[in-house]
């Protein structure tokens, strides 16, 4: 795509970016690519159409749920960019740095449907079931602090610890690192745990859940410079996001990452008409990522694998059994989310989730183009 540098400068100025950031955008990189593994170049940033801003507040945030009755906060067209300044931490912005566990509990227990301060919805004009929304992560800068916690009775080991756990973290000014403990430093890789289109149906859906519409994906690869693809479930798509994380491991085994909020978040949305996609997928500079959900890890892995086989065989014209073989030889299957709650405050329990990392390096340029066009047209 040819870049109009004068238009890019106007766009960069409107986004509040400096000259260095403008240069990065013009070269097809997000403003801060610190989180990309191995120094890989992020996915190209397309020139935005219009730029919209959504402030977090009582009219734009639904705590714990994806609400089908919520009116759209903004209406956008494909290619528009949405800025989310100063999003809220969990429990309607009720968590505060340094709060004792005992003081947090009354706040947490006010929200049995879920903790996440989900902001939205964004209506994508023209989106209909059978279409796909691409969510391009352009900017993800967290606030200056976060926490990790594990109430009793949650996580992969719900009965192993006699008392709840809570640890706070302060981030450096560049939002690159935090100290876990003396001698242990964590590199930050911010992302959104919840990305969703509104599910079909007339009742609110807990943000803790996940499915074809997205939801509580907690896919840590969704850092700046990546894309998430979500199958549209209802007219307008009605897009939500929440549950900001500063860093997380695969599996998120004690139930939480470094939970935080974003002081500067920018997501560009694209509409791809009439694309066949059953479950969420993602793209990074080095991989295609397929997700699968289930009541247990066996179900989640087989759902993920079947989605991979169906997608690649249709997109690349390969025999399904050849794709099955390729997955066994070249792909990595990872536990995205594992939980085994026995005493949760919340009325919903997250699905077990597995994701497949399919490396782009095994495909030539023509095959990569086929895979991309199967999602984008």
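Sequence proposed for the structure above (377 residues):
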């Amino acid at each position: 795509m040819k870049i109009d540098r004068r238009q890019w400068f106007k766009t960069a100025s409107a986004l509040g970016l400096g000259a260095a950031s403008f240069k990065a955008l013009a070269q097809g990189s997000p403003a801060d690519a610190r989180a990309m593994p191995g120094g890989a170049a992020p996915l190209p940033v397309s020139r935005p159409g219009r730029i919209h801003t959504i402030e977090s507040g009582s009219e734009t945030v639904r705590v714990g749920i994806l609400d089908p009755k919520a009116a759209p906060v903004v209406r956008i067209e494909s290619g528009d960019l949405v800025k989310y300044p100063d999003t809220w931490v969990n429990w309607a912005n009720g968590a505060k740095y340094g709060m004792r566990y005992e003081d947090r509990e009354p706040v947490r227990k006010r929200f049995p449907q879920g903790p996440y301060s989900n902001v939205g919805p964004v209506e994508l004009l023209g989106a209909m079931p059978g279409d796909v929304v691409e969510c391009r992560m352009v900017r993800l800068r967290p606030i200056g602090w976060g926490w990790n916690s594990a109430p009793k009775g949650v996580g992969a080991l719900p009965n192993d610890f006699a008392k709840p756990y809570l640890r706070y973290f302060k981030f450096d000014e560049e939002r690159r690192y935090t100290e876990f403990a003396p001698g242990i430093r964590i590199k930050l890789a911010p992302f959104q745990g919840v990305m969703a289109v509104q599910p079909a149906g007339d009742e609110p859906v807990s943000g803790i859940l996940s499915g074809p519409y997205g939801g509580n994906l907690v896919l840590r690869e969704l850092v700046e410079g990546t894309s998430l693809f979500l199958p549209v479930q209802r007219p307008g798509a009605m897009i939500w996001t929440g549950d900001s994380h500063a860093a997380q491991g695969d599996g998120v085994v004690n139930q939480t990452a470094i939970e935080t909020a974003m002081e500067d978040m920018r997501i560009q949305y694209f509409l791809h008409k009439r694309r066949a996609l059953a479950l969420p997928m993602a793209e990074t500079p080095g991989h295609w990522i397929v997700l699968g959900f289930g009541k247990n890890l066996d179900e989640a892995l087989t759902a993920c694998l079947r989605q991979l086989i169906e997608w690649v065989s249709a997109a690349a014209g390969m025999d399904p059994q050849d794709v099955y073989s390729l997955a066994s030889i070249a792909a990595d299957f990872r536990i995205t989310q594992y939980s085994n709650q026995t005493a949760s405050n919340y009325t919903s329990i997250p699905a077990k989730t597995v994701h497949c990392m399919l490396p782009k390096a095994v495909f030539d340029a023509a095959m990569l183009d086929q895979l991309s066009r199967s999602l984008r047209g």
